[in-house]
């Protein structure tokens, strides 16, 4: 039951991160669109006022008025975010989707990859308290129903303890390797994003370069429009930048969580191994002073 709730909580946090990132991007895009429309309206009003003033002037001053208006008119500049969205196109949209997935994954891993989650302090203290009371069955029942790293390892060790301490420690090592592999599987997508980001950016680079040189090749003579060539080249460079911007933090956080997985696995394994040795020693101490009646079978340790 705890495992199901843990999976549902992870999925809910992941979806929440995606929704928040998508909502933020939509709000910023709509805000920039609105600012651009306001700027266009503001440009139209001075032009209309200048036209009315030119009509009211005399015929002798009409030429000078038109020249003044032409000098005052500034070249129209496109909003930066709108330009980025337009140049990014479909490939940029794919990079944005992967970026949202990356942010959600990093947030989820920061929440899950913690020593407090792998070995809850309350669970460890409760097990130590039961061990002082020599309540071996209570310890086993407590860790058996919990889904943390600590509880899974300790439950495996206690279950195999009747076969000997060495066998129990080997079983714990196998379980530790399995749980560590599960954690590494969770962070593997960061490595995939770190490798995939530059490849997607390179695809955009090739697309922009092909479009730029295709424009030059199709137009002969001096009729080449520099703005079209510059637009294609800027698209190529922008998509390269977006791919690298996704790759660099993905590689960094993969290294961070890889080290965190190693730290958690080592710490929890050592804690469980130490607790299991104390558990085995306490079990022997409990059964050793018990006097056996003649003909009575040997006492079975309560850890089975």
β-sheet strand percentage? under 5%
What's the average pLDDT?
Answer: 78
Roughly how many Å apart are the termini? 24 Å
> Helical content, roughly?
over 70%
Description:
It contains nine helices and no strands. The chain has 304 residues and is mainly alpha-helical. It has helices at residues 2-56, 62-72, 80-112, 115-118, 121-132, 136-144, 149-160, 165-218, 226-287. The protein folds into two domains: 1-68; 88-287, no CATH class. Residues 58-62, 65-72 and 289-304 have low confidence and may be disordered. It is rod-shaped, with a radius of gyration of 34 Å.
Task: Provide a brief overview of the structure.
The protein is mainly α. It has helices spanning 2-56, 62-72, 80-112, 115-118, 121-132, 136-144, 149-160, 165-218, 226-287.
Q: Which tags fit this structure?
A:
304 residues, 0% strand, 9 helices, disordered C terminus, mainly alpha
Any chance you could write out the topology, listing elements then pairs?
Layout: H1 2-56, H2 62-72, H3 80-112, H4 115-118, H5 121-132, H6 136-144, H7 149-160, H8 165-218, H9 226-287
Helix pairs in contact: 1-2, 1-3, 3-8, 3-9, 5-6, 6-7, 7-8, 7-9, 8-9
């Amino acid at each position: 039951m705890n495992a199901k709730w843990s999976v549902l909580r992870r999925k809910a946090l992941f979806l929440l991160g995606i929704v928040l990132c998508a909502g933020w991007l939509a709000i910023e895009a709509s805000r920039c669109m609105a600012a651009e429309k306001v700027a266009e309206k503001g440009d139209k009003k001075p032009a209309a006022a200048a036209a009315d003033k030119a009509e009211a002037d005399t015929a002798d001053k009409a030429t000078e008025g038109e020249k003044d208006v032409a000098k005052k008119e500034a070249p129209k500049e496109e909003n930066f975010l709108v330009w980025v969205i337009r140049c990014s196109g479909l490939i940029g949209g794919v990079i944005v989707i992967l970026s949202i997935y990356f942010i959600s994954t990093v947030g989820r891993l920061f929440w899950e990859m913690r020593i407090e989650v792998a070995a809850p302090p309350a669970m460890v203290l409760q097990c130590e308290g039961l061990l002082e009371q020599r309540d071996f069955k209570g310890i086993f029942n407590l860790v058996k129903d919990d889904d943390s790293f600590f509880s899974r390892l300790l439950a495996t060790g206690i279950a195999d303890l009747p076969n000997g301490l060495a066998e129990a420690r080997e079983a714990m090592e196998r379980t530790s390797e399995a749980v560590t592999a599960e954690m590494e599987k969770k962070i593997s997508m960061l490595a995939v994003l770190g490798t995939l980001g530059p490849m997607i950016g390179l695809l955009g680079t090739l697309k922009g370069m092909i479009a730029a040189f295709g424009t030059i090749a199709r137009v002969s003579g001096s009729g080449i429009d520099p703005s079209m060539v510059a637009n294609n080249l800027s698209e190529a460079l922008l998509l390269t930048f977006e791919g690298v911007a996704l790759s660099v933090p993905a590689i960094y956080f993969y290294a961070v969580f890889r080290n965190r997985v190693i730290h958690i696995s080592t710490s929890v394994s050592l804690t469980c191994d130490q607790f299991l040795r104390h558990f085995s020693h306490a079990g022997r101490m409990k059964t050793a002073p018990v006097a056996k009646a003649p003909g009575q079978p040997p006492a079975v340790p309560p850890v089975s």
